[in-house]
């Protein structure tokens, strides 16, 4: 994967290198143009087809807020919102996102003007090392939207009813975001505060 | 990850033809399982045909017979949240929300979920033999750590399980998988026949031909009754099933039941369902009559009985 990312960087610095239709020889890995919006700003890139959305954000657009933890969809550190829905950006190719609207942690708030979820994580100490935090916050914002939209969850007794903003719901719905430092109870407190606001 | 070319297509027929004409090609929908496996070079497609733009595959519609037609590209989240599914096919919503994480369910599609590959740890480790990953290389799981693996329907070539939850519910609901074949004709595959047992060809998870594209899954008219998906796993959330039970139980105690986490496909023995009114043990004695567990996964057999007993007790309550 590291070798693949390196090749991708080299290719984007030499636009016009196209190998579409080849069977993927080692000399010229296929590239594709792709454009999408990130945090309201248009991005146009020509990428090795192997570049994930996460690597496009981090390595090509220098938006390093989204983190690479496991790179296999298991930890949630790479969580971003695509067209308003949270996904693992590590398990998505950049070229799959032509025309999409992507929101990363950098698009939620700024150091001078924090998103309410960011402020709540600070207030409740919802982290220790902070590496999972951008993914946690993007996931938390999307989780509240999913509860509001009535998306059902495993912990509901009655799946035909509207879900609650309970701690049990938040824990279940945030299970795709791992915190190696174990700040879970403070993360639940932070999200609960925003949910009640 | 190996290099690959990438193409988007507008119609199902175009997608089927594009993959059929290229032995190294694969369909790409949500990609949550395929990309994971491509990073590990367990999947090594030379060409990806992205089907996300195909019209008509992203909707859930009432079928003419009073059932439901679920487009292949409907995401797990959308399907689980659908009002009719929640009301009339609760076992399906229950199964979907018992699987994966919120992020994955938002991306994973109905068709892709059916095609997800086993989570057998030996399939995932390219350093070890695996007949599913590398046909003819042997099965490291047979003499290995097999706690998660199949207790029934396995072969001397493979004891992997099908890992999904959604499909267990679809098996109980007698769903049908609709496809477009490379020559443009369509076919309807009864769910019971969709996933294969490993036999001598564990590399083939299902009966699809190369280039055959799933377009929809259809559900017959609602069954009524109470719907259950009881999943037993090592964590409370975001873990694969050790054993799962999908069940629809009627007020008179009759019903249907299928098991997940025990075999290479959703495991249902219709003949055993007549024993449901006599209790869980009477059912599982028949469902697992031909079981051949390993020393590590023998526990799944009493666990399946207890999981079903829990469901039947709740159905009475």
TrEMBL record, chain B:
An example Gene Ontology molecular-function term: FAD binding
Keyword Flavoprotein: yes
Source organism superkingdom: Bacteria
Domain FAD-binding PCMH-type: 1-224
Keyword terms: FAD, Flavoprotein
Alphabetized InterPro entries for the sequence: CO_DH_flav_C, CO_DH_flav_C_dom_sf, Diverse_Substr_Oxidored, FAD-bd_PCMH, FAD-bd_PCMH-like_sf, FAD-bd_PCMH_sub1, FAD-bd_PCMH_sub2, Mopterin_DH_FAD-bd
Transmembrane segments: none
PANTHER family cross-referenced by the UniProt entry: ALDEHYDE OXIDOREDUCTASE FAD-BINDING SUBUNIT PAOB, XANTHINE DEHYDROGENASE SUBUNIT C-RELATED
Name of protein: Molybdopterin dehydrogenase
Organism in which the protein naturally occurs: Croceibacterium mercuriale
């Amino acid at each position: 994967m590291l070798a693949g990312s390196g090749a991708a960087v080299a290719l984007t610095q030499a636009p016009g290198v196209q190998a579409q239709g080849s069977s993927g020889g080692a000399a010229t890995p296929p590239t594709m143009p792709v454009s999408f919006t990130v945090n309201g700003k248009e991005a146009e890139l020509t990428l090795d087809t192997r570049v994930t959305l996460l690597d496009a954000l981090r390595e090509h657009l220098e938006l390093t807020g989204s983190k690479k933890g496991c790179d296999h969809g298991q930890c949630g550190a790479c969580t971003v919102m695509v067209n308003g829905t949270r996904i693992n950006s590590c398990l998505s190719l950049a070229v799959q996102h032509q025309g999409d609207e992507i929101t990363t942690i950098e698009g939620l708030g700024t150091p001078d003007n924090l998103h309410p979820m960011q402020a709540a994580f600070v207030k409740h100490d919802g982290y220790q090392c902070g590496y999972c935090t951008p993914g946690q916050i993007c996931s938390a914002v999307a989780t509240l939207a999913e509860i509001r939209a009535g998306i059902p969850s495993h912990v509901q007794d009655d799946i035909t009813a509207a879900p609650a903003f309970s701690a049990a719901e938040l824990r279940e719905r945030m299970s795709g975001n791992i915190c190696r430092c174990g700040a879970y109870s403070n993360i639940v407190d932070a999200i609960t505060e925003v949910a009640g606001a | 990850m190996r290099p690959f070319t990438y193409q988007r297509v507008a119609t199902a027929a175009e997608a089927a033809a594009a993959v059929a004409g290229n032995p190294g090609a694969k369909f790409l929908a949500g990609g949550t399982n395929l990309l994971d496996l491509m990073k590990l070079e367990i999947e090594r497609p030379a060409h990806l045909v992205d089907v996300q733009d195909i019209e008509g595959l992203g909707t859930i519609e009432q079928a003419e017979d009073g059932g439901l037609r679920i487009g292949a590209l409907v995401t797990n989240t959308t399907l689980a949240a659908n009002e009719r599914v929640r009301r009339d096919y609760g076992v399906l919503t229950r199964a979907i929300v018992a699987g994966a994480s919120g992020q994955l369910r938002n991306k994973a599609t109905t068709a892709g979920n059916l095609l997800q590959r086993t989570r057998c740890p030996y399939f995932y480790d390219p350093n070890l033999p695996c007949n599913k990953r590398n046909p003819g290389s042997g099965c490291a799981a047979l003499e290995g750590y097999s706690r998660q693996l199949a207790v029934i329907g396995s072969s001397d070539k493979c004891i992997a399980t099908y890992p999904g939850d959604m499909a267990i519910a679809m098996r109980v609901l007698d769903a049908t998988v609709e496809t477009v074949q490379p020559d443009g004709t369509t076919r309807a595959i009864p769910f019971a026949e969709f996933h294969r047992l490993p036999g001598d060809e564990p590399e083939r998870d299902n009966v699809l031909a190369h280039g055959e594209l799933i377009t929809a899954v259809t559900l017959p008219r609602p069954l009524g009754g109470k719907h259950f998906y009881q999943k037993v796993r090592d964590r409370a959330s975001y873990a694969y099933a050790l054993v799962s039970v999908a069940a629809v139980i009627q007020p008179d105690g009759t019903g249907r039941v299928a098991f997940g986490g025990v075999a290479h496909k959703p495991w249902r023995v219709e003949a055993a369902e007549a024993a449901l009114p006599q209790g869980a043990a009477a059912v599982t004695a028949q469902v697992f009559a031909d079981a051949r567990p390993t020393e590590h996964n023998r526990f799944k057999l009493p666990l399946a009985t207890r999981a079903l007993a829990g469901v039947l007790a709740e159905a009475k309550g």
